[in-house]
Amino acid sequence: MIENKIPYKTYLDENEIPTAWYNLRADMKVKPAPLLNPATHKPLSADELTPIFCEELVKQELDNDTAFFPIPQEILDFYKMYRPSPLVRAYCLEKVLDTPAKIYYKFEGNNTSGSHKLNSAIAQAYYAKKQGLKGVTTETGAGQWGTALSMACAYLGLDCKVFMVKVSYEQKPFRREVMRTYGASVTPSPSMETAVGRKILAEHPGTTGSLGCAISEAVEVATQNPGYRYVLGSVLNQVLLHQSIIGLETKAAFDKIGVKPDIIIGCAGGGSNLGGLIAPFMGEKLRGEADYRIIAVEPASCPSFTRGKFAYDFCDTGMICPLAKMYTLGSGFIPSPNHAGGLRFHGMSTTLSQLYHDGYMEARSVEQTSVFEAAELFARSEGILPAPESSHAIRAAMDEALRCRETGEEKNILFGLTGTGYFDLVAYQKFNDGQMTDYIPTDADLAVGFAGLPKVED
Ligand SMILES: *Cc1c(COP(=O)(O)O)cnc(C)c1O
Fold first, then answer.
1. Which residues line ligand 1 (CB under 6 A)?
2. Is residue 36 part of a domain?
3. Is 194 among the domain residues?
């Protein structure tokens, strides 16, 4: 039984896995701004979204009021293969940093896809299957989402078509082979297979691609092939909903040992792991029951929160997707190919954008060499080889722990260790060879992206 009236409660099954996802929007006084139709600039109705997304997921996307969504048993059965994920006290890292702070991390890399993305991939694939669809299309940047989705589709017997950002396709051939092993087809983006891909290639010959381009291609294929829908691994409300399992488990584990985190830190690409990790804690904060410092960490080379504009923008380069009000660098923004650490989406979850705008969380950006220094120290002390994305959170957690060393404060620091870095060894190689550099876009660079923002009255 799920009681919507008691949204702070975590319901656990006999394996200590939550049996419902928590919808943070239910507790927000100012709701995230609605998605708009890119042609009319009117809020999108469910009818307009169902040609693109699965029906059940559209309902989740648009529901700002229901606090808890029961997790279907089939999804719980899948979760059981790799959940609950461990909440680890980083004793060795604390010792190396010589800090009085206590550092905890929630580790989501204990599955073959190597990241938290599987939590939403299985949910989205399940709803596609339940709707009787043949398959799904998607984009992938660094490759974790495509891998997670191909695993979920293989499990459920769905066709999976992945558009992979060209630079990653070339730099990460092994990711591609994992996806193909799970039965997915993988196309480098931009490609000649879609009208939008051909257009982008004609305008920008030799482009290394971007998530925004790959999204446009995947949406085009989904909407033009009967029995297919598009699925997205981050940014959307539904993805944050599924990822709330991370935070609910964390909260349950902390409650069990009587610990309350003071600072909660997550890396932010599109915002899904951070939104999931903070969900129940932010819920308490919104209801005035507890307070936490919440910090989003992003790359200095793709600084949506810290240098972006809070405005309606396209989620894709081809400008065919809904408009979302978010912190954005503009849909035409393409991060420097020098940037190795993922988190390269130009925008941010509308939910997190609203919360950040309203002062419920902080954001900071970090440079990639300092991120890899943190990754190296973490690997040497805690043993796990972290994903570069996750290492943004490690960097910030270490910085907070070092601050505690200065002040003597015994803070409880929690961060999300979203995944492992075994497929990022080209980036590690660059770092180890001393060839990694930092690239921070100038204001003039960013102005180019901002100039492409659509004019929307809101
Ligand atoms: C995709 C990914 C991220 C960033 O995506 P969010 O939606 O911001 O969570 C972070 N870490 C890893 C390991 C990822 O695969």
1. 115, 117, 144-145, 234, 267-274, 342-343, 387, 389-390, 418-419
2. no
3. no
Contacts of 53 (CB under 8 A, 6+ apart): 61, 229, 230, 231
- Give this prediction's pTM: 0.96
What CA–CA distances, in Å, run from 267 to 71, 337, 387?
26, 20, 11
- Judge whether 419 lies within some domain: yes
Retrieve residue 278's tokens. 């903070």
Angle at alpha carbon of residue 289, lines to 285 and 290, rounded to 5°: 60
Q: Which among 365, 354, 364, 359 is positioned nearest to 327, based on CA atoms?
A: 354
Domain of 340, CATH number, reads: 3.40.50.1100
How many angstroms is it from 251 CA to the middle of ligand 1? Answer: 20
Domain count, the chain: 1
CA of 150 to the centre of ligand 1 (A): 16
The Cβ of residue 205 has, within 10 Å, a number of other Cβ atoms equal to 7
How are beta strands 135-140 and 20-22 bridged, if at all?
A: unpaired
Domain span at residue 273?
Answer: 83-114+237-451
The strand ranges marked E within 242-322 are 263-267, 293-299, 309-314
- As averages over each run of 10 residues, the pLDDT of the chain (458 residues) reads 48 90 97 95 95 96 96 97 97 98 98 96 98 97 94 98 93 92 97 95 91 91 96 96 98 95 98 98 96 97 97 86 94 80 88 98 97 98 98 98 98 98 93 95 95 87
Interatomic CA distance for residues 284 and 275, integer angstroms: 14
